[in-house]
Amino acid sequence: MLRLYYSAMTSAFRCRWALEETGLSHEVIHLSLARAEHKSPEYLKIHPLGSVPALVDGDQVVLESAAICMYVAEKDPERRLVPAEGSISRAHYYQWILFSMTNLDSVVHGPYLRAFPRPPELRSGTATDDERTALRRCLALLDDRLAAGWVLGQQFTTADIILGGLLEWADVCGLLRGADTAARYLARLRERPAFQRAAD
Q1: Do the Cβ atoms of 15 and 60 come closer than 8 Å?
Q2: Is the torsion defined by CA of 36, 40, 42, 43 positive or negative?
Q3: Spatial distance between the Cα atoms of 98 and 38, rounded to a whole number of angstroms
Q4: How far apart are CA 112 and CA 108, in angstroms?
Q5: pLDDT per residue over 117-149, tens digit each?
Q6: What global pTM score does this model have?
Q7: Nearest-angstrom CA–CA distance, 16 and 195
Q8: Taking CA 73 as the corner, what is the angle to CA 70 and CA 79, rounded to the nearest 5 degrees?
């Protein structure tokens, strides 16, 4: 069975969401950041940097949320979250995952970290106008795609999970104000039963 080491409101959410989308058998092991359980000697043997998430599959460990999500997608016998190997859709799948984890994350991560320790009622005002402008500039590349459906068109994939996880962070800290297409796309993602199960 797959074991996901998880903390709420971290990038581990994307991994839990991917597992829920596939229905693969798994166990979620909650780590409290407040109690520094991610820095315990036992967990440091799994993730030497003491970060979440980590996925354990037998005696193997996979780190980094995007890598975990992509691994989970490959393990799904029905391959619901990944385009056909060798297809142009597969190239675009890699493209948008890497875009999300580089360009988009670089805009979202800082404001989200400023929001994370705050009470919920104060989080949405954390982002600045300049940061919102930077996010809209990034998302302009995806506007047509997000308005029409999913990142790759009609097929929902891991690329949507990675992008959606970052947009969830963006919304928490107020970055999505003025990014109407992305906000509507995030609302559709939140309607997915797997998203809702992962968010419980």
Answers
A1: no
A2: positive
A3: 26
A4: 6
A5: 788 888 888 899 999 999 999 999 999 999 989
A6: 0.95
A7: 9
A8: 140
